[in-house]
């Protein structure tokens, strides 16, 4: 991965007219790429592992929807560049997807600080997430947000172990009200290896 792949600037973003012309094919490519960057955990939680291209697509869509021009682009780059892995980590958007409003309120009110209790296990060694610190996502009443951005930072040995396809890689949470563990499928494992240097 080159350094260019680790930070977006305005030269990486198509102008609105060009994006509109190519939006259908771009979105199709991104949907295909994201298939092997998604993992479900338990009944409500899904991780979407981000990279340069998912963040590029996100910014393009935000500009397409809101049409805020250069001023908006500056804000979007500031918001989404921190979610591009820098070669020593995996970065995920974690979503708690609960359709029923009453159920959602009840579940989220029980999951305070879940963002600090997520881990990736590499052959049994747990690597806990570091939440993005843009805003506090658990309120003073213990209710958590339905969207979290988390980093899984790894040292050289952990990265080396993660890159070994024969090793058992799992993702889970220790939270009392959402204790789940699932094996990361081989095709996702193979894809995520590319996020490291």
How would you portray this structure in words?
The protein is 37% helix and 22% strand. By secondary structure, it is of the alpha+beta class. It has one domain (3-83, 90-193). The protein has a 5-stranded antiparallel beta sheet, with no helix packed on it. The chain has a 4-stranded antiparallel beta sheet with strand order 5-4-8-9. Helix 1 packs across helix 2 and helix 2 packs antiparallel against helix 3. It is globular, with a radius of gyration of 17 Å.
Describe the SSE topology.
Elements lengths: L15 H19 L3 E4 L3 E5 L2 H15 L2 H12 L8 E8 L4 H10 L7 E5 L2 E4 L1 E2 L15 E7 L2 H8 L5 E5 L6 E4 L2 H8 L4
Helix pairs in contact: 1-2, 2-3
Name some characteristics of this structure.
197 residues, alpha+beta, five-stranded antiparallel sheet, four-stranded antiparallel sheet, 6 helices, 9 strands
Most strands sheet:
5 strands, antiparallel
Query: What's the total number of strands?
Result: 9
Counting helices, strands and paired strands, the structural category is alpha+beta
Could you list the spans in which at least 5 consecutive residues all have pLDDT below 50? none
Strand order of the largest sheet: 1-2-3-7-6
Q: Please give the radius of gyration in angstroms.
A: 17 Å
Query: Share of helix among residues?
Result: 25-40%
Oligomer type: single chain
Helix count equals: 6
**How widely separated are the two ends?**
6 Å
Helix-strand pattern: HEEHHEHEEEEHEEH
Number of domains: 1
Shape field: globular
- Could you report the average pLDDT, rounded to the nearest whole number? 93
The amount of beta strand, in percent, is: 15-25%
